[in-house]
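Narrative of activities, Objective 1.

The group set out to show that a structural description can be obtained from nothing but a protein's sequence at a throughput compatible with the screening campaign. Below is one input-output pair from the validation batch, recorded exactly as produced.
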Amino acid sequence: MRTKRCVRVCARSVLLVVLTVTALLAPPPHLLLATGAVTGVDAQIPAVGRAWPVGARPPLLRGWDPPPTPYARGHRGVDLAAAPGTPVRAVAPGRVAFAGRVAGKGVVSVALADTGDPPLRTTYEPVRASVREGDEVSAGEVIGTVEPTGSHCTSPCLHWGLLSGETYLNPLLLLPPWLLNDGPSRLLPVLGVPLPS
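Output recorded for this entry:
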């Protein structure tokens, strides 16, 4: 009888450990919808990001939805909730490739350091730039603020994009897993097992 109880407790413990490890290694469910399919090009994106462009973990309003052809409908980036005036930060070190207005919107583009030739470029809009073309920026450095107008979102947001040459990629792939997770890892208690004395 005691052996059967021990087997049940051990089986539950092993199952709990497996489920916990699986949950910790899997991306959060809200990012599964945001990341879209991983292509061969996406798989080569280095996780050089060290900061979110806005906030510590901003709500994702609209995810990555790559168009099937270059001129088809889709979403060539991600939309992050951000109130007007929110500081916008460079996600990784690089050089400002563009800071100005495009179709009435403030846009900042940063060519990321050590990401190949041509380098990967991040884009941020609508942004009132505090940097100029040619400026070197570090990860987390403020490059501007979210403008009150010019957003395509239904609520205030920052559109964050990533380009390799002329090909749009998923910018979330720049961020390492520890930045994407919803919080620190936690150990769960093993139920039915007495604490060591």
